[in-house]
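User: Just a sanity check before I run the rest of the batch. Below are the structure tokens for the first item. I only need the designed sequence back.
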């Protein structure tokens, strides 16, 4: 029997994860990670709203489930570490990039700080309710991260940054099930979270949206500037680049008689460049801060890549620059390659690794 620390968010997936592991005979310890953040004045506040995780109600739900399952349960304060995640989120928008805090939360907290807690209590494994799978081959000598059985809920994309050395201590039991099966299990067990809606938003961004949140935490930051078309015409002005992301169509604040999209953002001049749909197409991208779940590649290889969580994987060639950066050439142009988002490489169901999009190839034709 192994000792397993389960990250319990108060949702149905992590609750069923805890039950499955207990049914397998493991000693399960439930852990709720409190994510209270600080305002710019240093005041602690609860940042979570309806439909978001980490609220007091979520903590209460997690505790009720732990009581029903008769497992030990603790709620720990991770606010200091979580504040680093908030800084990353705000700083990325200041750089004209679109952050993905869920990936950073997984690598920094759920599979970072949580491992340190697991080590402190002598736990063998860490488990979460993510929809992805861990495959162990050759008696556990080779460990792979795979897509979930339920591809409509697959979350392997947001786990690409997990430290490869820790994969052998990760358990993801609901990845072997469909969402429907998970909810049916929860209902059959009488768990109070069986019908609880999934969290959809960034957990620390309150109602009002990310631009309001960024502005509140960086009140003196000057981020306004011009809106310019791809052919160089100035067609308006905006009040802050934090309001925009590549591929965005609505809320541009200009009317040009046809649909225009955000093509790129220049943080130095605070310029938002817009253009017609075809101007979004990119032949490829450059990525940095790579994390590989295989031996770091030293030569080009074929694979499928995803450039955002909800997009399908597309065929591409990956060309390593060094162990921490690489270039991707799509077989067919892809729209809205977004700096700050992750590009994740797959070989079928297997996650090979990935990196953070630095820029699209179409923006750097001379490189």
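Assistant: Here's the designed sequence for the first item:
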């Amino acid at each position: 029997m192994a000792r397993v620390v389960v990250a319990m968010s108060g949702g149905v997936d992590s609750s069923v994860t805890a039950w499955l592991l207990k049914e397998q005979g493991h000693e399960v310890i439930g852990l709720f990670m409190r994510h209270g953040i600080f305002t710019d004045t240093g005041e602690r506040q609860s940042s979570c709203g309806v439909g978001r995780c980490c609220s007091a109600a979520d903590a209460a739900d997690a505790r009720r489930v732990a009581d029903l399952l008769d497992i030990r349960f603790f709620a720990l304060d991770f606010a200091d570490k979580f504040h680093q995640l908030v800084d990353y989120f705000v700083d990325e928008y200041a750089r004209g990039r679109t952050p993905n805090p869920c990936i950073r939360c997984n690598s920094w907290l759920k599979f970072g700080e949580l491992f340190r807690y697991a080590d402190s209590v002598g736990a063998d494994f860490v488990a979460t309710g993510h929809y992805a799978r861990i495959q162990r081959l050759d008696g556990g000598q080779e460990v792979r991260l795979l897509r979930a059985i339920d591809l409509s809920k697959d979350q392997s994309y947001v786990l690409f940054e997990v430290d490869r050395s820790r994969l052998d201590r990760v358990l993801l039991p609901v990845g072997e099930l469909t969402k429907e099966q998970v909810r049916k299990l929860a209902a059959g067990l009488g768990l109070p979270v069986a019908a609880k809606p999934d969290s959809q938003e960034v957990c620390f961004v309150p109602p009002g949206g990310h631009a309001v949140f960024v502005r509140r935490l960086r009140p003196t930051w000057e981020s306004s500037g011009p809106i310019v078309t791809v052919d160089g015409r100035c067609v308006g002005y905006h009040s802050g680049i934090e309001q925009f992301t590549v591929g965005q169509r609505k809320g541009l604040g200009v009317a040009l008689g046809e649909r225009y999209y955000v093509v790129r953002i220049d943080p130095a001049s605070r310029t938002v460049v817009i253009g017609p749909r075809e101007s979004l197409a990119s032949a490829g991208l450059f990525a940095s801060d790579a994390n590989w779940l295989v031996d770091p590649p030293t030569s080009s290889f074929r694979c499928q890549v995803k450039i955002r969580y909800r997009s399908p994987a597309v065929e591409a060639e990956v060309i390593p620059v060094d162990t921490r950066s690489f270039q991707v050439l799509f077989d067919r142009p892809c729209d809205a390659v977004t700096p700050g988002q992750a590009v994740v490489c797959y070989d079928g169901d297997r996650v090979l690794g990935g990196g953070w999009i630095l820029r699209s190839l179409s923006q750097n034709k001379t490189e």
